[in-house]
Fold:
Amino acid sequence: MKKLGIFLSVGLILLLVLSSLAFAGEKSRLDVILERGYILVGTTGDYKPFSYLNPDTGKYEGHDIDAAKKLGEALGVEVRFVKTTWKTLIDGILENKYDIAMCGITRTLSRAKKVGFTDPYIKVGKCPLIRKADKDKFKTLKDIDQPGVKIGVNPGGTNEKFVRANIKNAEIIIIPKNLSIPEKLAKGEIDVMITDNIEAIIVSKNMPELYAVDPDNPLTKDDFGYMIPRDDFAFQNWLNLWMHQMKEKGELKKLREKWIGE
Structure:
């Protein structure tokens, strides 16, 4: 029995050493990007002001699109955008369809079980968007969560997750295209849209008939980061240093002023 125990211990140590060597031999995504000369950026194109596929130009624009271009410049590589959806966002990383996802992505513990994240670059929180005519009717989440109230939400993201966790009485209506939700709200097809406070503020500025409910005191305290493969510390460290330098040089501030404002 003693010899068997020693044999098993040696075998376990050998297995751990071989596993470590195998992991050490894996290339970082950073090296892969530099060698091939371009970076693949996954983006949804449906979330202003971070990622929007302009139908008139056929090109992506927004805060994170500009950030992606600056990322490409810092790496010295070409930037190639890859269309994705909120529902398939994580799958795109796991299936190597893109190297990084950039489109206003909330960093969550559940997502971090499968993928990695950079340091945060902006703070956000969930906020109701309603018709201005209803601002005295819907002041709190309790006011909203009532029978007969219709809440529109895009599937697959943190907005849907928040709604399903907190709404018990109102009707939840899934709307595949995120950009179409404010229009349906304005037309009266739904009564409420739950989104991040930044989107709620910008939409209400562009559509005066809509109203962001207390965006300075959001229902959650969240932040955005860029989604990357998990456990690739070389790539993550490089990105975090790049983001730190972007902040120190005032580049992140310029992007915020351009696309979000104060």
